[in-house]
Design a protein that fits this description.
The chain is an alpha/beta fold and 329 residues long. It has 11 helices and 13 strands. The structure holds S-adenosylmethionine (SAM).
């Protein structure tokens, strides 16, 4: 591991919770979904029949492995933002390990330590000539750490050029302006000889999308509610999870899925770490996630505005999801 996630994390979590629950429109950032329990629940979401993004993105990579590789000037160090269980990346890594002997280098970055550790261990046992330096940090600290490491260790034959990947349509969690700043920031951290591969979930029949976030097994509901559990565990909150319920719906005007936690009754919740009580009216909601769905035109515009050119777009057969291979201009 190249870095230990900094100690300010709990303080930052507390400050964000205090601010978010104190807002007129209560909200919590989706990045707090991913404690150990949340990461495991997300893995379960990915295998629910209704949750198409993971399955489709996996298939796109599998089907286009040769075409993706053909576009790349190997050798490359593979750096992944928010790597999770790295299951989709496995396909690329196996390919790199074949082509880049003696070693392929992988820098997974994630705020969730357990899943990062477990998936790195697993990958290094199944892919022989893979060197993994996992980075327990957030996207941009992590990317900076990977950049510095690659720059300083060139004598060890770590490929100087990078393929940075951002899968799972996590870009959709940002507001459109934030998404643009995010891409601009990525661009600042890349050289023109690097690449950026990013997954976007596309606009489609809203019922398909709504079903994906309302699986019959209730796993997404558990995932959503777990954020309250995390506040209870880490910040000494007294949320009663039975008094809140999951709600996810498609907002047609904004082209996004919204996830909320709805208070089933009028109640107060106390959080010890920040020594504050919060009042919830019956039916008042905490907004926990947006997931914006894109059009091809929006992807072209945002890529261009951030200083990238599109090398290739890889779609599934229904045009539900697209993997975009971008090159810094
Ligand atoms: C939607 S999951 C996607 C996981 C994986 N990339 C996939 O496609 O299945 C988002 C991942 O990003 C991580 N994550 C969320 N916010 C992050 C941040 N600010 N910095 C680093 N990792 C983050 C989470 O822990 C989680 O593993």
């Amino acid at each position: 591991m190249l870095n230990k996630y900094n100690k300010n994390t709990l303080f930052e979590f507390a400050a964000d919770v205090s601010r978010g629950l104190g807002d007129k429109n209560k909200q919590l950032s989706p990045k707090y979904f991913y404690d150990d329990v949340g990461s495991k629940l997300f893995e379960k979401i990915c295998i629910q029949p209704e949750y198409y993004p993971t399955r489709i993105e996996y298939d796109i990579i599998k089907t286009n492995l040769k075409n993706i590789t053909k576009e790349l000037d190997l050798p490359l160090s593979l750096v992944e933002l928010g790597s999770g269980n790295s299951k989709k990346t496995f396909l690329l890594l196996e390919n790199f390990a074949q082509l880049q002997k003696p070693f392929a280098y992988y820098f997974p970055i994630d705020v969730s330590h357990k899943i990062l550790h477990e998936s790195s261990n697993l990958l290094s046992t199944v892919i022989n000539n893979l060197k993994i330096h996992y980075i327990h940090d957030d996207f941009f600290n992590g990317l900076k750490i990977a950049n510095d490491y690659i720059k300083n260790k060139q004598n060890l034959a770590i490929p100087e050029n990078k393929l940075v990947i951002f899968l799972g349509s996590s870009i959709g969690n940002f507001e459109p302006e934030q998404a643009k700043s995010f891409l601009l920031n990525i661009r600042k951290n890349l050289k023109t000889s690097d690449y950026f591969l990013i997954g976007f979930d596309l606009q489609k029949d809203q019922y398909v999308i709504e079903n994906a976030y309302n699986d019959k097994n209730g796993i997404t509901a558990m995932f959503n509610l777990n954020i309250l559990n995390r506040i209870n565990k880490e910040l000494g909150g007294n949320f009663n999870l039975d008094f809140f319920e999951h709600r996810a719906f498609y907002n047609n005007k904004e082209n996004r899925i919204e996830m909320h936690l709805v208070s089933k009754l009028d109640q107060y919740v106390y959080i010890k770490y920040i020594d504050k009580s919060f009042h919830f009216r019956k039916n008042e909601t905490i907004h926990t996630e947006n997931s914006y769905k894109y059009t091809q035109k929006q992807i072209e515009d945002i890529s261009k505005d951030a200083g990238f050119t599109i090398k290739q777009l890889f779609f599934d057969k229904n045009n539900w999801f697209v993997l975009s291979l971008l090159k810094p201009i």
